[in-house]
Amino acid sequence: MRQRPNLTHVVLYGALLALVTSLGARAETSASGVVERVWDDGFLLDTGSERLDVELDSLRALGITPGTRVTIAGDYDDDDHDDHDDHDDDDDDDGRDFRARRVTID
Q1: Strands 29-39 and 51-55, sheet pairing
Q2: In sequence order, which ranges of the chain are alpha helices (DSSP H)?
Q3: Among 45, 41, 31, 23, which Cα is nearest to 86's?
Q4: How many other C-beta atoms are found inside a 10 Å radius of the C-beta of residue 17?
Q5: CA nearest neighbour of 43 among 69, 81, 7
Q6: Is residue 4 part of a domain?
Q7: Cα–Cα nearest to 74, from 96, 51, 54
Q8: pLDDT of the chain, 106 residues: tens digit per residue
Q9: What does the alpha-carbon distance between residue 48 and residue 36 come to, in Å, rounded to a whole number?
Q10: Residue 100: CB atoms within 10 Å
Q11: 86, 77 Cβ separation under 8 angstroms
Q12: Which domain holds residue 46?
């Protein structure tokens, strides 16, 4: 005989469903602008309305230099901790963290 779900089962199932839905529904964001600074694993992008501290796995193959106009696609990385911050510690020039999946030179 099959046991009927109790309130605890329903609540746990609802929470799990909400978590899976929110993880899968993460929308990709895109932005365009001019590269201001470049470092080993990213660059600072001025979009005109904000500055983005863009992180990439491999930047060297792209040939991006300051002054290059690019379009990026990825996600804002609003975590408080940044394990990959290898560039200058001058926080006055840093922008909002952005994890790029694609970069296109315009």
Answers
A1: unpaired
A2: 7-24
A3: 41
A4: 10
A5: 69
A6: no
A7: 54
A8: 667 767 775 566 666 556 555 555 556 899 999 999 998 889 999 999 999 999 987 665 578 899 999 999 999 887 644 444 444 444 445 789 999 988 999 8
A9: 12
A10: 24
A11: no
A12: 29-78+95-105
Question: Is 6 part of any domain?
Answer: no
**How many domains is the chain built from?**
1
Burial 30-56 (b: 16+ CB within 10 A, else e): ebebebebbeebbbbbeeeeebbbbbb
Establish if 22 belongs to a structural domain. no
Q: In angstroms, rounded to a whole number, what is the distance separating the alpha carbons of residues 59 and 98?
A: 14
Domain with residue 57: its CATH number is 2.40.50.140
67: in domain: yes
Please give the angle made by the CA atoms of 35, 57 and 42, to the nearest 5 degrees: 25
State the Cα torsion 89-95-99-104 to the nearest 10°. Answer: -110
pTM of the model: 0.62
Helix (H, G, I), strand (E, B) or coil at 106: coil
